[in-house]
Amino acid sequence: MSPGGTYKIVDLHNAGGVPAVMKELGDLLHRDLPTVSGKTVHEVINEARVFNSEVIRPRSNPVHKEGGLAILRGSLAPEGAVLKIAAVTPKMYKFKGPARVFNSEEEVTSALRNSKIAAGDFIIIRYVGLKGGPGMREMLMATAMISGMGLGESVALATDGRFSGATRGPCIGHVSPEAVEGGPIALVRDGDIISMDATSRRLELEVSKDELGERLKSWKPPESKIKLGYLHRYSKLVTSADKGAVFKRF
User: Fold this and answer.
1) With 0-12 CB in 10 A as exposed, 13-18 as middle and 19+ as buried, what is 21?
2) 37 annotated active-site
3) pLDDT beyond 80 at 92
4) Contacts from 161-165 at CB under 8 Å and sequence distance 24+?
5) Long-range contacts of 146-149 (CB under 8 A, 24+ apart)
6) Which of 60, 129, 208, 247 has the greatest CB tally within 10 Å of its CB?
7) How many Å apart are CA 105 and CA 185, to the nearest integer?
8) If you average pLDDT over every residue of the chain, what do you get?
9) Helix (H) or strand (E) holding 247
10) Alpha carbon of 10 to those of 18, 55, 96, 216, 227: distances in Å?
11) % of the chain surpassing 90 pLDDT
């Protein structure tokens, strides 16, 4: 679907909607489960029809051979990161560049407005994860500006924040562990070389372990942005994105 494909949501609706997609998934679903309509999955599927097999493809003729998301791992994201590979052009599957480090989305958008981001840069946005946010807000403005300024095929971005389905280009989210927990993304400095290989699912910070160890010794987590209330409690109890962002159990 757009922006990763030709068809819009209205085309999906006219082709039969989500029930028709479920019908194509067939035996991959648990058909005896109830739905909010009061009907079982089986009953919903039986009533569904596919009206356009180009929009809702059969499993024998998929749009892609694999899913639209790729989980990257490596020295920058030991516990994983998420890339919407379906929205990345093949020429950007491999990318390497110097880090441009920012501690908020606002810093990035300001740098973009002032032409301080150049082709070949690897943007890092950190301290915007679940604990650092708190709440892991979407980095939509940064990615929209990158695309709108024509940098979508010459700049990459990695963050411990998140993205929505509208993201295009090599934008990597959910980097874990997040910066506020002392993950490697907290130790990145301007000019460090970062490499991404979507094909082999790697995301590497090309800095030696010894150097990262020295940086970690002098690193201190920033003060919490929220000192009281539910969000303060949330920031203290929420687990990492790779753990599902659920609360710790005591």
Assistant:
1) middle
2) no
3) yes
4) 161/105, 161/125, 161/128, 161/129, 161/133, 161/136, 161/137, 162/136, 162/137, 162/138, 162/241, 163/84, 163/138, 163/139, 164/138, 164/140, 165/1, 165/84
5) 146/112, 146/117, 146/171, 149/112
6) 129
7) 15
8) 92
9) none
10) 12, 11, 38, 50, 44
11) 73
For residue 134, whether the previous peptide bond is cis, meaning omega lies within 30 degrees of 0, is: yes
> Can you give the pLDDT at residue 250?
63
Catalytic residue among 2, 53, 110, 164: 164
Whole-number Å distance between alpha carbons of 80 and 203:
9
- pTM here? 0.81
Mean pLDDT across 6-17 = 96
In percent, the amount of the chain with pLDDT more than 70 equals: 98
> What's residue 4's pLDDT?
67
Q: Is 199 exposed, middle or buried (0-12, 13-18, 19+ CB in 10 A)?
A: exposed
Residue 171, classed as helix, strand or coil, is strand
